[in-house]
Every structure is written in C-alpha cells, then in structure tokens.
Amino acid sequence: MNEQSETQRPEKCSGCGIKLQTEHKDQPGYLPEVALDRDPVICQRCFRIKNYNEASSVSVNQDEFLRLLSGVGEKNALVIHIVDIFDFEGSLISGLQRFVGNNPVILAVNKCDLLPKVTNWNKLRNWMQQRCKEEGLRTAEIVLCSAKRNQGFDRLLEAVTELRGGRDVYVVGATNVGKSTLINRLISDYSDLEQELTTSRYPGTTLDTVKIPLDDGHYIIDTPGIVYPWRYSELVERQDLDAVMPANPLKPAVYQLNEGQTLFFGGLGRFDFVQGPHQSFTCFISGTLKIHRTKLERADSLYADHRGEMLSPPGSDRMDKLPPWQRHEFRINKGSRSDLYISGLGWIKVNGTEGAVVAIHVPRGVKVLTRPSMI
C-alpha cells in the first residue's frame, strides 16, 4: 500500500508547476515530507502565498538570473527593479537594460528610512538617475520607499497602475533588498490570490520563477533574488549579519583626521588616511559596528593582535572564514565631493575639498569604489 501511494504522489507542485523535493529547504520546490499527502500537493512557497499571503524568495547567481530574464525584452511587460539604498551599487543589476528592451522599468529604492531625515530627496533622485545612466539603465520612475516602515508603497503602486497598462509585472532584485515584502503588497492590491489558488492551477515557468495571477488575466512574475558575491551581506556568517546590515536610521559618525591615521570598522574593514591636509570624514555604517581609531603605523600590528576580539565582528572563530584582506588605494581630487563606498558595509564621505590619498582594506572580492557623494 505504501509503495502504491508513493508512486501516485505528484512530481510537480499543483500551484506553480515546480518539481517537488523534500531535502533542501532553501531551494525551489521544497515541501516537508508530511505535506506530500495533502490534497492538492503544493510546494512550501505556494503554501505560504496561499495561506499567509507571503511570498518567499529563492536565490540564484547572476548568470542564471540573466538566463531567466533572456526573453523579457521580447514580451510586453513592466519591470520593477528593487535596490537597497544602503548598498546601491552592490544591488543594482548591471546589464539589465539589454534584457528588458523597451519595456518600462520602475526603480524601487528600498530602506530609505535608513538615511537622515534632513536628506534632500529630490537631489537624491537626481543622484540615482545619474548612477543608472552610467550603468545604461533607463528608468521610467524612481520611487523611494521603506518596506520596514511601509513608506512610499502607495506611490509605488500608483506608478505600477500608471505604467502597467494590462501587462505582466516582473519583479527583480538582489537578495536582502526587500523583494518579498513588495511582492506581498502587490498580491494584496492586485490579486484575489485565495480564489485563484483554490480554483485553478497556479502556473510557473521555470524552477526559479513563480507567476502570481492578477485579476485581469496577467501575472506578477516573482524572479529569484540574485546572489552577488561582492556584497558583505553574502560574505559574513548569519550571526554577524545584524552588525553589517543596519536596522535603524544611520547616525553619521564624523572624524577629524590627520594624515597617517586609520579607522577600523570592527574586524570587517579598515580606512587609511594616507596623505593630505587635516580634514573630516563622515562614516555611514551600521550603528552596531564599533569604529576604532589608531595611527596608520600601528594599524597592521593592532589588527594582528586584536582581530576577532576588540576588532569584531566577526569573532575569532569566524575570522579565518573570510578571504584575506586586499588594499584599495584612491586619490581624491581637489574640489571633488566623494564617497568611498564598500558594498554592504556602507560608505565614508570625504568632506574636505583639498584632495587626499586614502586606502580601504576589505576581504578580497568585496566591491569598493569611489562615487560622487550621495548626500
């Protein structure tokens, strides 16, 4: 009897059509063994959407994601690209434009509640438009929002209504940018999901995308979150993630430095003021990450003696799991207002206009660059 029931168990989710599996919780098609006897049999992701109005994301690397997007440009669709304001360059999808073609793109900039309240939001939008232009990405709308505080979502939904025009909506973004929260909000506003799921098949196209039916016969296509290895959020252990990713508004820390001084950001990064006149630098990093100031000539020995202890996170048991540090040197020209950006860790604003030579030390592979000051 058991053997017969095993052979009668469906191989695919009756919700999204994905191949079912019971071994890997973090991969598409997962459901607990006990759920195989339910009727209908649906994967855990569809179960959560159906019963809790909750969309959970799976993740893939960039190459796999771009393969999944390869046909979007030939379709009539609206694309919502979600990015993280704290890690803008690290979460922006490079090369997206050549895959979306002439379809309109809404840039939803999440976690804007992290920025100081005195931020000039119009100037910030212009800054983002310029960054997108440099990446070759055309945006029909830029919406600043906060999934955590439910801010800006009404404007985002207005933009979707204005631009959708009866088209499918593709939602794309890197991991940890708030994509699931947006999907959930779109579901509640545009789809009678409970009725759809109980009366018809909930179709999916590939192992890594889920199509959520809309009331007009079109779909929200939930794409997997992209794993970008150059982001700190993908590099650190889970117990250190809270220290890296800020949960509360940033409190800019201003340091007046002379050349030959160094700042350590816990055991995760280091900033050297190599050369230049006395000037100030503003650090925009998570408030849970302690900053230690020392002389540049003592920095190497301080790190060797106190890594994983005073200079933590990560703790001493996790230090060797990170790649070795790599030094990146930058020359800040006179008159320029620049940020030194570290993907997923934050940025250091150079406040002086007299020029400087600086260096950033982070684990090999972490994206580091200079950019015009965000704020």
Can you offer a commentary on this structure?
By secondary structure, this protein is of the alpha/beta class. It contains 12 helices and 18 strands. The longest helix is centred in the middle third of the chain and has 14 residues.
Number of DSSP strand runs: 18
Question: Which regions have little confidence, pLDDT < 50, spanning 5+ residues?
Answer: 1-7, 193-207
Q: What is the CATH C level class of the largest domain, in words? A: Alpha Beta
Biggest beta-sheet profile: 6 strands, mixed
Helix content: 25-40%
Choose one word for the global shape: globular
Distance between the termini: 67 Å
Count of folded domains: 3
Mean pLDDT: 85
Q: Strand fraction band?
A: 25-35%
Number of helices: 12
The CATH topology annotation of the largest domain reads as: Rossmann fold
Order of helices and strands: HHEHEHHEHEHEHHEEEHHEEEEEHEEEEE
How are the strands of the largest sheet arranged?
A: 4-3-2-5-7-6
What is the CATH architecture annotation of the largest domain? 3-Layer(aba) Sandwich
**CATH superfamily (homologous) name of the largest domain:** P-loop containing nucleotide triphosphate hydrolases
Task: Specify the structural class.
Answer: alpha/beta
InterPro entries: G_CP_dom, GTP-bd, GTP-bd_ribosome_bgen_YqeH, Mito_lipid_metab_GTPase, NOA1/YqeH-like_C, P-loop_NTPase
Protein name: CP-type G domain-containing protein
Pfam family, one: YqeH-like_C
